[in-house]
């Protein structure tokens, strides 16, 4: 499958997408929440590795996107240990089976979020990129803007393309850095869908986030999501997911 061109990526996202990242903690859950809100979609994180006192990623997405829990599909596998899924599964005595990864039935666009990056191991010689290939959705890659993002982003894009997985585009998350963003899009031959400025804290008041999302009248590729400083910080990582 080739990358989606400028005329087809929006239509493709309306049928659903898979959100991955160049690393853990790059902002996948924030991006997934915005896509759920913007597309009027549902959310599914098939593997939840680690549980947060503030709620799992599905609860975070529901709060930030302002959607009910019936639009959040439960994970196939959930582990308490905040480690790689292969380790969490091993310690729990569970085998992650690729055959169990089947898209939930939904009348809405389905936003699927992976755990970590494309080469996160699931065990038995399988990686999350194998799940992406199996599910067949176009992929949105969430990238940092800071030093190191060029290498991480290009490696991620290369891995996806080497397996014939279509890339809808990249979304950057972090402080302003036009040079790094330009380098990734030009060297990676990929469309930038959005840049999301980094914030230490995300609002716990879902309606504030919803208002910011709704006020954005720009096309997706020009969108800049701005979160207000408020009470709820991500307890797992200083950078919101």
Largest sheet: 8 strands, parallel
Which fold name fills CATH's third level, the topology?
Rossmann fold
Report the portion of residues in β strands.
15-25%
Listing every helix as H and every strand as E from the N terminus to the C terminus, the arrangement reads HEHEEHEEHEEEHEHEHEEHEE
In the CATH hierarchy, the architecture is 3-Layer(aba) Sandwich
What is the mean predicted local confidence, pLDDT? 80
Going by CATH, what is the homologous superfamily? Answer: P-loop containing nucleotide triphosphate hydrolases
Helix vs. strand class: alpha/beta
- Tell me the Rg in angstroms: 17 Å
Number of domains: 1
Helix share of residues?
Answer: 25-40%
How far apart are the termini?
A: 28 Å
CATH class: Alpha Beta
Count of discrete alpha- or pi-helical segments spanning 4 or more residues: 8
Oligomer: single chain
Low-confidence stretches: 204-241
């Amino acid at each position: 499958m080739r990358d989606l061109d400028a005329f087809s990526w929006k239509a493709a996202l309306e049928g659903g997408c898979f959100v991955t990242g160049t690393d853990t903690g790059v902002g996948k859950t924030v991006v997934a929440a915005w896509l759920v809100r913007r597309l009027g979609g549902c959310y599914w994180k098939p593997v939840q590795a680690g549980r947060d006192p503030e709620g799992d990623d599905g609860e975070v997405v529901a709060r930030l996107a302002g959607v009910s829990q019936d639009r959040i599909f439960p994970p196939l596998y959930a582990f308490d240990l905040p480690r790689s899924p292969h380790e969490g599964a091993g310690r729990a005595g569970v085998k992650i089976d690729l055959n169990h990864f089947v898209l939930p039935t939904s009348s809405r666009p389905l936003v699927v979020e992976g755990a970590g990056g494309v080469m996160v191991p699931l065990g038995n010689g399988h990686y999350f990129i194998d799940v992406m290939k199996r599910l067949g959705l176009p992929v949105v890659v969430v990238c940092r803007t800071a030093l190191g993002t060029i290498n991480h982003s290009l490696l991620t894009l290369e891995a996806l393309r080497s397996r014939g997985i279509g890339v809808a585009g990249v979304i950057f998350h972090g402080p302003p850095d036009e040079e790094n963003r330009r380098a990734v899009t030009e060297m990676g031959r990929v469309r930038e869908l959005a840049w999301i400025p980094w914030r230490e804290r995300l609002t716990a008041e879902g309606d504030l986030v919803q208002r910011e999302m709704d006020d954005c009248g720009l096309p997706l590729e020009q969108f800049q999501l701005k979160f207000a400083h408020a009470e709820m910080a991500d307890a797992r990582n200083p950078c919101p997911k």
